[in-house]
Write a structure and sequence with these properties.
Elements: E1 4-6, E2 11-13, H1 15-22, H2 30-44, E3 50-55, H3 61-75, E4 81-87, H4 90-106, E5 115-117, E6 121-124, E7 127-133, E8 148-151, H5 159-166, E9 176-180, H6 189-200, E10 208-211, H7 213-219, H8 221-234, H9 239-244, E11 253-255, H10 259-265, E12 266-270, E13 281-286, E14 308-317, E15 334-344, H11 348-362, E16 367-371, H12 376-387, E17 398-402, H13 406-421, E18 425-429, H14 437-451, E19 453-455, E20 465-467, H15 476-482
Length: about 500
């Protein structure tokens, strides 16, 4: 029997009842109908409440919104009313919102007469839904929300833009306001509104609706299995896992690598100084500038104010075949650090020859990834030209340049944390004699890990800024190590020469 709510002048369906009747192939689940019903009640009784809905990724937040919008349009098709829905951008985000509602209108189990006009308005009778961009460049002033005002992906909407342009749309009508999205940092519009609503919970319960992945997994076992595999791959502390599945805010700033991360890096394999026959190796090079007063070749001054060129040597270990076989793109490889080096102030000409010898003779490397940003561009180019040739009995080494940008460096942080969290990045167990250069290098790497700080203020692009503050020293050894994450994108299939 369909659930109904009876009022003195009309009979209204509950959110669950409406979903059953109009969308039997996409019926809302209990964790979706609960917030939908609370929002409906606020609209119906003109309470003007604020609600925040935060679901685990791919848990049905947008489906909830589409069906809620259609139910309100159907209920108010005779009396009229306006729903305003804002997203960070018109294309693609607002259009994606609109298209989902449009699709549901077209294929509802019971016919719903509607009109679409001006590319941003859907009408059912006298009621309408308007899909707008919350970009500061968009001209969206002058709209009025009489039924519902929605901020979708609210973590990406500028709070000042919302306060100045969108919040006034509901002032004269006392419209209910809904904030939806994914948590990020405490500076976002979504986080601000959730904190405010949390303060109201004692006097107005049911305003913040948080559904993490464990709730969804109780209903959808395949979803739970998928997320568990993702956690195993990236680690519980990975920022994506924390924000998108556990719904935890990231700190505004702090240490990028926790003690848990550092402990998880530690392997039990020994340090090496040359290749083991039949094993596969990669060299990761973070390039520093030259100096007119270099140290001795191969030496590093870890206390100097000058950056060092840092090298991390990793062994690429294929996963056991009995655990699913080898993915030739290396996505499931384990990377064991077997050696690292650093050079301070060494000329790139000298460095070039030493790196060629290390790649070709010492490690018989499969690939070398080189920082080609700024001063590194020339060195990367020379290395590529030299190592692409077969010399004597030594096979060519594939040299891949990497350019540090705000975007690529941010992604590198996420990917490196994923490697660490999954246990696929392992440091050697250093037993070097205390006071030796090798022990000093290991200690410097450990100190650099603990000095790395990050800032997550940019919610829109999910970028982080990370590195060691100038007053705390260098991060070159860590940057070189982090470049290990780039190996997951490298194709290890043999290069086959084809004649003409």
């Amino acid at each position: 029997m369909t659930n109904r709510i009876t009022t003195p002048d009309r009979e209204l369906l509950t959110a669950a009842g409406f979903s059953d009747r109009y969308f039997p192939d996409q019926t809302l689940r209990a964790y979706q109908t609960a917030p939908a019903q609370a929002i409906l009640e606020s609209v119906r009784h003109q309470r003007g409440e604020q609600h925040a809905v935060v679901f685990s990724r791919q848990a049905g937040k947008d489906e909830l919104l589409a069906q809620l919008v259609i139910q309100l349009l159907v209920e108010h098709r005779k009396t009229g009313g306006t729903i305003v829905l804002a997203a960070p951008t018109f294309r693609p985000q607002s259009l994606t919102m609109r298209d989902r509602v449009l699709e549901r209108l077209r294929f509802a189990a019971r016919p719903i007469a509607f009109k679409a006009r001006e590319g941003m308005i859907l009408e059912v009778g006298r009621a309408s839904a308007r899909f707008l961009s919350a970009s500061p460049l968009a001209n969206t002033r002058g709209q009025t929300a009489s039924l519902l005002l929605v901020a979708n992906e609210a973590q990406d909407i500028d709070p000042d833009q919302w306060d100045a342009v969108f919040d006034p749309m509901a002032v004269t009508t006392n419209a209910t306001t809904l904030f939806m999205g994914t948590v990020w940092s405490r500076h976002t519009l979504l986080a601000r509104q959730m904190r405010y609503l949390d303060q109201l919970q004692d006097v107005a319960k049911g305003r913040v609706w948080k559904v993490d992945w464990t709730v969804v997994a109780q209903v959808l076992e395949p979803y739970g299995e998928r997320v568990r595999n993702r956690i195993a791959q990236q680690g519980r502390d990975h920022p994506t896992i924390r924000t998108e599945f556990f719904l935890e805010e990231l700190d505004d700033a702090g240490s990028l690598f926790t003690e848990s991360h550092i402990a998880r890096m530690q392997g039990d394999h020994p340090r090496q100084y040359a290749a083991t026959p039949g094993h596969r190796y990669a060299l990761l090079v973070d390039v520093a500038g030259e100096s007119e007063t270099p140290l001795l070749p191969g030496a590093a001054d870890l206390t100097s104010r000058r950056d060092s060129t840092a090298l991390t040597v990793v062994e690429i270990v294929d996963p056991p075949r009995e655990r699913g076989g080898f993915d030739h793109f290396g996505l499931q490889c384990t990377y064991r650090v077997v050696d690292r080096k650093a050079w301070t102030g060494v000329s790139h000409r000298s460095l070039h020859q030493e790196l060629v010898d290390l790649a070709r003779r010492t490690w018989k490397a499969s690939v070398m990834i080189v920082d080609a940003t700024g001063v590194g561009a020339g060195l990367a180019s020379f290395l590529k030209a030299e190592l692409s040739r077969r010399v004597g009995g030594y096979a060519p080494v594939d040299v891949v340049p990497f350019h540090f940008t705000a975007q690529s460096k941010s992604r590198l942080a996420w990917d490196f944390l994923g490697l660490i969290g999954s246990g696929r990045y392992q440091e050697y167990a250093d037993i070097a004699h205390p006071g030796s250069p090798e022990a000093a290098l290991t200690a410097a790497f450990s100190a650099q890990l603990r000095s790395i700080e990050y800032d997550v203020a940019n919610a829109t692009s999910k970028q982080v800024r990370w590195g060691t503050p100038a007053h705390r020293g260098h991060d070159d050894l860590v940057m070189s190590a982090a470049m290990t994450a780039l190996l997951d994108d490298y194709d290890y299939r043999p290069r086959i020469a084809r004649g003409s």
